[in-house]
Design goal:
By secondary structure, the protein is of the alpha/beta class. It is built from nine helices and 14 strands. The longest helix is centred in the first third of the chain and has 16 residues.
């Protein structure tokens, strides 16, 4: 249940399962109220202001995509999972039509093209779309301009940005062929959030996994309840560790973003990287592979 108030949305129940919520005493790093569902465990921004999309410049895009270049392995992981599923059905990867939602610089659709996959992208940012098109990639600026249907839809670190995940996934189902595949990677609650909450109470750091940019943090339960409402059949939900900034310098930048003093950045980053290697931060990403139900 939501109340529309001028240019904002205020949730009274869980945005996924409509269960009762608890308003958290702390706010997000950018000062927004948070709520947690007492039923499915979803943590989300309770009051959402309708904001204008940011305008990315070529310089900021170049810098951003250079920063995340260390974490490309997730794309190969995705393709291996999809290939295994298609192999099971005696289907080939080559010739499949794929749409990547939130395609960014188009690295993934370039990778897919090299494998013979008919690959397309979509991104909400006009600057990102222009950036990818200049690289010769097939990228859409609006979903309502897409008339063809696809065999595969992929979403990497996009679902957490969506104000209404259920409606967004329903719309995407219309672009997917019957029995087509959807692959999603999104952040999930893990031990790292527990550690950050302790540091937050101590005043050492702040948890920035929920913000005006990342509107919700899922649990496996909340993802299952979300898909129960949608025209998809879940093949599996897997949990894994995956970082957008995987090297020590990138982790140092993240440490700085959560408020650790700059003088301690590199020291803390080395400790964090060691803890990640032995899985003491937990599996911070959920992987969902599902098929669209046949009409």
């Amino acid at each position: 249940m939501i109340d529309n108030i001028y240019d904002s949305i205020s949730y009274k129940t869980c945005k996924i399962c409509a269960g009762p919520i608890e308003v958290k005493s702390r706010k997000t790093v950018d000062g927004l109220p948070m709520a947690e569902c007492l039923n499915c465990g979803l943590l989300f921004v309770k009051d959402v202001s309708i904001k204008q999309l940011r305008s990315d410049t070529d310089e900021s895009l170049d810098e951003y995509y250079t920063e995340i270049s260390t974490e490309k392995s997730k794309f190969n992981y995705c393709l291996n999972l999809i290939k295994s599923f298609l192999d099971h059905q005696n289907r080939k990867m080559a010739g499949q039509r794929l749409l990547d939602i939130g395609c960014g610089d188009g690295y993934f659709i370039s990778l897919c093209q090299n494998l013979g996959i008919d690959s397309y992208g979509y991104d909400i940012s006009p600057a990102v779309v222009d950036y990818a098109k200049r690289k010769g990639l097939k990228v859409f600026a609006a979903l309502n301009k897409i008339t063809d249907k696809f065999d595969i839809i992929t979403m990497f670190d996009v679902l957490e940005h969506m104000e209404n995940p259920r409606c967004e996934l329903e719309d995407l189902a219309k672009l997917l062929k019957d029995n087509g595949l959807i692959f999603i990677e999104t952040p999930r609650k893990c031990l790292a959030d527990f550690y950050l909450s302790i540091l937050e109470v101590l005043g050492v750091a702040r948890n920035n996994r929920i913000s005006a940019e990342h509107l919700q943090l899922f649990t496996d339960n909340s993802l299952q309840k979300l898909f129960d409402q949608l025209p998809y059949k879940i093949i599996f939900i897997k949990n894994k560790t995956s970082l957008s900034w995987g090297d020590t310098e990138g982790i140092s930048q993240y440490v700085n973003n959560i408020g650790i003093p700059k003088s301690l950045n590199w020291f803390v980053a080395i400790i964090v990287k060691s803890l990640i290697r032995i899985n003491l931060f937990g599996r911070n990403k959920a992987i969902i592979l599902a098929t669209k139900n046949a009409n």
